[in-house]
Amino acid sequence: QVQLVESGGGLVQPGGSLRLSCAASGDTFYSYAMGWFRQAPGKERAFVTLIRQTPGNTYYADSVKGRFTISREDAANMVYLQMNNLSPEDTAVYFCAACFSIGLENNYYTRTTSYNHWGQGTQVTVSS
Predict the structure, then answer these.
(1) pLDDT of residue 2
(2) What is the DSSP secondary-structure string of 7-74?
(3) Measured on CA atoms in the order 91, 44, 95, 63, is the torsion positive or negative?
(4) Counting beta carbons within 10 angstroms of the beta carbon of residue 73, is it exposed (0 to 12), middle (13 to 18) or buried (19 or more)?
(5) Least confident of 10-24, 91-105, 112-126
């Protein structure tokens, strides 16, 4: 069992940056792969990025590659999403998700059904 709480969302101008945080409960956080998804109104929840357990391999959706960076601090039970050069198309509710066992085959890591735990979401709005 793990509880997840996101923070750091808000309003930012196009081209700006935000850093989202996800705080996890428990003492086995290190054993989970951690992902970020986002959902815009009327859209399905979409994969953004994943960081696996140590050594912490990372994977990114093409739409955010080169702009977003995921990282984790296992000792602090934290995962972060640094978002740079934001555009209005990045506007969405961003969700932190945890998976105890994740597979890379068939792009399972991009599917919402592959994750066992979800945070409540934090709103990111990119607008002038």
Answers:
(1) 85
(2) E--EEE-TT--EEEEEEE-SS-GGGSEEEEEEE-TTS--EEEEEE-STTT-EEE-TTTTTTEEEEEEG
(3) negative
(4) exposed
(5) 91-105
